[in-house]
Amino acid sequence: MDSVPNTPPGxxxxxxxxxxxxxxxxxxxxxxxxxxxGGQSVMAGTLVRAAGERFGVRIPIRxxxxxxxxxxxxxxxxxxxxxxxxxxxxxTTPLPERAALAVPLAVPLEMTAFQRRIWLAEQIxxxxxxxxxxxxxxxxxxxxxxxxxxxxRLVAEHEILRTRFVDEDGGWSVQxxxxxxxxxxxxxxxxxxxTATHIPDGIPDGIPDGIPDGVTEWLEAALRLPFDLESxxxxxxxxxxxxxxxxxxxxxxxxxxxxxxxxxxLLAELDRYCATPDRARPVVQYREFAAHQREQxxxxxxxxxxxxxxxxxxxxxxxxxxxxxDRPEPNGAFRLPLxxxxxDSLRAVQSEHGVxxxxxxxxxxxxxxHRWTGVDDVTFGSPTANRNHPRFAELxxxxxxxxxxxxxxxxxxxxxDVLLRMRREALGALEHQAVEFDDVLNRLxxxxxxxxxxxxxxxxxxxxxxxxxxxxxxxxxxxxxIDELRSDYAKFGxxxxxxxxxxxxxxxxxxxxxxxxxxxxxxxAEHLAGLLTRFPEALNEPVLPRG
Length: 547
What we know:
Layout: H1 9-23, H2 41-55, H3 62-66, H4 70-80, H5 113-124, E1 131-139, H6 144-157, E2 163-168, E3 171-176, E4 184-190, H7 213-224, E5 235-242, E6 247-254, H8 263-275, H9 286-296, H10 300-312, E7 332-335, H11 342-353, H12 357-373, E8 377-385, E9 400-408, H13 415-431, H14 437-444, E10 458-463, E11 470-472, E12 475-479, E13 494-501, E14 504-511, H15 518-533, H16 535-538
Parallel strand pairs: 4-5, 10-13
Antiparallel strand pairs: 1-6, 1-12, 2-3, 5-6, 7-14, 8-9, 11-12, 13-14
């Protein structure tokens, strides 16, 4: 029998509207669970922020994991707020527009901690590439001239795309340059292969294995060519066309000016510029985000977050051991052999234990590392998007931080124990992400080795390619999975990336050949894939061998 929420129907409908907007699903009812509806950790932050704005309260992110059904979540949120904070309907008076701020080109700006880390890595080793390759198939037809104009408007209105990163006598400064018009390269790609006709074992049906050769060639060339960081021109674009008229949109953008959370913003802005090419509107500029981060330093909450990480990592080894090959090997990248329907098979576990599929993936990686290395205390990293403030929801520019997840086990620990530990670790990381990873390292002062990043030399990424699908000037863009290129920019000893595309989970593995050989990487990957495949049945398994 369905449960009956205590909240008045009007408030339940208001909350359902928030859920339906964030989850992009209709008809959500009181007993529907965030997890069975496809929710995950990044989406959780968006949902609690939107619900908090609608109901006028601050909602901790762990609330959604503790009250995962719409009815009970609404009951709890309504209980947080006094009646005056709960209007019967959304306010109809529009918020005043933010005034556009004119910034003289000569005024120095500031880097965020993430940008400083990226910039410094390239100063130390010029061969490092922090390029972000992006590709979409186009359903419909993009007009090259309209797209070119839209790219120019994007650069003109978003200062981050005309920001110069200048090396001055061993130091750095950040400066704005005048607007510039990105060249749009037009590619003749010839005959289009039907990439969906060959689906190797382990690749979910309907997801193409790779991308056409001409597309890969352009992206590989764009990745090899370094950007001039002082030029303020850190974006490359191409529009490819096959003989049958089908198109692909290709971008290569430097990580100093973009991250995964910025990609939906980029596409929405391009669509707006195509629709209204002469109508400007104030946008949140990246310098405002950088100033906000600086202002948070030394606040009471900042010190609380730093104390959390100091406690969470006390006594942890800075290095999760990887079996290095006898001789350095080339970097490598390959797909995990995951079955179709994996997301669906995890729904019951997610709902019962209040976990996202990312937490399941983190558990499987942690257990695999424990079993593979024989070490009872391991750490690995995961990027987080530090843009929970409503003001920066539509920010264009990198807002990434790095969280450390730690798993400690005993001889009696089971897979379920690790799952519950990863739940606590992930929620703690989301609630204490205001402190930059660099500040954590400065406080803990772990031992350093060249080419190794303390605590996070094994990294778990989450890539929501479903969020990168978009409408652009009347066409439909569908993201292409470009895992062929991942070995070219492997930055950590081992990186596992879980991609959500077309409602399926795809696993990608990349590794640095000087730290982990191909045989070792595939051995770990096979164990990881096997554990994910039978995860619901594996919860009571011991993590380490007994006896």
